[in-house]
Each structure stands twice: as C-alpha cells, then as structure tokens.
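quick one if you have a minute, typing this from the bus. theres a chain ive been looking at and ive put its sequence and its fold in token form underneath. please have a look and point out which stretches look like helix strand or loop to you. anything you notice is useful, everything is just below.

***
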Amino acid sequence: MGYALWLVPSSTEFTALSELMKFRPQPSTLDSRSRSYPSFDPHITLATFDDLPPSFNLDAIPLDNLPPPVGRFHSVKRGNSYLGTLSIVISPANNLTPLRDAVTARLDRLNIQWKSRSFPHMSLFYVDEPEERDRLYNELRNRGRIQGDKGLTLTANPSMQVRTFTGSEIWLVDCTRSVKRWQVMKRRSLVSPAPPPPPKETVPQKRSDKGIHARKRKRFHPEPPAVPPESFRPRNTYPNAGNSFIYRLLRCQLW
C-alpha cells in the first residue's frame, strides 16, 4: 500500500470505535499463526500512494473554507478480501469530498500518483479466513454491536454507542509493512483551538469626597468624650454643692 492519508474521528468517537474493533467471536477457532484481527486505528482513507517525496508537507495543504467533515454510518459493506473484510459506508459523501479533493489536489501538484477506492468507507476488521468473516458478521449482528440497515448504530458496550464520524485530524501513515506495524508519521488537527478568554479589567474604586473629609475630621478634630446626662450624675457630684443655700440650711439643722 505504501503511504496513506487518514481522516481520524473525534476523541469520543475514536474511543468507542476502538473498543468495538476489539470484538472477537467466541470461542476462537483461528490458528495462532493467523494474521486476522490486527490492531489498527479507526479512520477513513483519503488517499494512498506508493512514494513519499521529501517535498511533501502535510501542514502545507490548504484546508480553509471547507465544510465540516461529518458523516453518518449508513450501511455495512462486506468483502471477500483481507483488507475488505468488513467496513462501514459513510454518508453523505458530499460532506467529506471537499476535504479529500483538497488533499489530492496537493498530491497532484507534487506529481504524486494516488488512489482513493470506495471513498468514503471505514474499515472495522481485517480477517483472512472466509468462514471467520461470516462468523464475525453474524456475531456482530446477533449481539447488537451493529444495528440498523440504512442508518447504523455501532455499539462498543451499552454505554458507548456511536452513529456519526466527525473528522478531527489528518494522519500521514507509513503502511509499507504489515498492518500491525503501520506507523503514524505526522498528525494535523482540523479543530481550531479555542481563543483564550479576555483578561478581566480591574477598575479601581473611587473614594467619594464625603468619605475622605469625614476621615480627615476624625483624624484632626476628635470628638469630645460623651458627658452623661444630669439625671445620671451621682448626688455628691453636683457643682458648687457646698455653697448652695439648701446645703447650708441642712447643716445648721444638724448642728
């Protein structure tokens, strides 16, 4: 196969699909030397090509003003070959074709001979043995892992179901060796990073002139201590008590 450019789903879809792709019919009847059920990541192949020139730069592909690459799982496609064992047809293709065309236009500009077969589809399993392919499909249907006919629901487990494919990254993958040795060479995100929140403006609080003058008065003109009212004064504290007429009269009577 050489090299490939993959469209990879969102992280949530990626997790659910990866879990589903671990499904195996039980009990296993395969020989230990079988190459069936290799582990690989969920993806839609945009293009494959035999040679990778040094001038190819994934980040240089213009991808501005393209519609969001989002599709639904439409139907199951079964094949008679190892790489065509079982895949999911994605629709509508119109949502994904502009991205594929932008990628292949860049390949054409670099004179890279590319292929894009059965686009868009997503492979789930690679199985060598014809009997095992039939057994796998029947088990997936019977256990409710694939539900529906024209509009599918893929179920990894009761809490992980997925119906759509949201393209979030493009991967450049080295596929020159066996499937289990495929290696990701480069990743490019299709999701724009969220802008940082604007800094909060701190507005200094203005002190009113009234409050300032009040504090100044307290500082430079302290208030006199409170004087208790006349009714609360002790009797022997009246001013000039010794010189009053009543006081002298009482003293004379006592004498």
